[in-house]
Amino acid sequence: PRVVVLISGGGTNLQALIEAQQHDELGGEIVAVVSNVADAYGLKRARDAGIDAVALPHREYDSREAFDSALTKVIERHEPDLVVLAGFMRILTPRFVQRFLGRMINIHPSLLPAYQGLHTHRRALQDGVTEHGCSVHFVTEELDGGPVLVQAAVNVTPDDDEDSLKARVLTREHLIFPIAVRWFLEGRLRLDGNLATIDGYPL
Ligand code: GRF
């Protein structure tokens, strides 16, 4: 099975997926990495792993629809079974989401449905929560609102700051993302309306 990964930045989640693939633990092959940021370090990670690395600078397109249309073409050229958003910092148009609905997943640094959107670690600290974490979910038209597939939780300690909490959550992201990708590629995860199932059982 074929995977296309979309990134915008450093790509540590991409790196975790690459290493899972190199250890035959991904269940498929990353055939392309596409970034909306031309100098994203994640593109270098792809190239170093011999993976097709494509920069598609969103600033070169005069609308969100034009960018998403160009992105769709690049993705479909690689005929993926799964599209993975790994730190892809773009709001996707409904048309794009519908195109890949049921075969597109994202990782978000919070225990969804808590803390959808940005600055999740700062907001969790400000609220004084004692538990935080990360979630892999199907991408639907609701931002960070799709059905959750896998989560990992971490304790928040009083001496945590945004950096320490982000770093601890990131280690868990690198753990659960490859598992979710493998389960999808094994055909175990399905999107049924706004419900996700594993082996036919509701998640
Ligand atoms: C991660 O925290 C991820 O949850 C969020 O953006 C960050 C991406 O990090 N979507 P990286 O580019 O994978 O290192």
UniProtKB/TrEMBL annotation:
EC number: 2.1.2.2
GO biological process: 'de novo' IMP biosynthetic process
GO molecular function: phosphoribosylglycinamide formyltransferase activity
Catalytic activity: N(1)-(5-phospho-beta-D-ribosyl)glycinamide + (6R)-10-formyltetrahydrofolate = N(2)-formyl-N(1)-(5-phospho-beta-D-ribosyl)glycinamide + (6S)-5,6,7,8-tetrahydrofolate + H(+)
Residues noted as binding (6R)-10-formyltetrahydrofolate in the record, renumbered to the chain: 64, 89-92, 106
Keyword Nucleotide-binding included in the entry's annotation: no
Annotated active site: 108
Residues with site note (Raises pKa of active site His): 144
One Gene Ontology term, aspect cellular component: cytosol
EC top class, as a word: transferase
Known pathway: Purine metabolism; IMP biosynthesis via de novo pathway; N(2)-formyl-N(1)-(5-phospho-D-ribosyl)glycinamide from N(1)-(5-phospho-D-ribosyl)glycinamide (10-formyl THF route): step 1/1
Residue stretches making up the Formyl transferase N-terminal domain: 2-180
UniProt keywords, alphabetically: Purine biosynthesis, Transferase
Family listed: Belongs to the GART family.
Descriptive protein name: Phosphoribosylglycinamide formyltransferase
Species this chain originates from: Halomonas huangheensis
Gene: purN
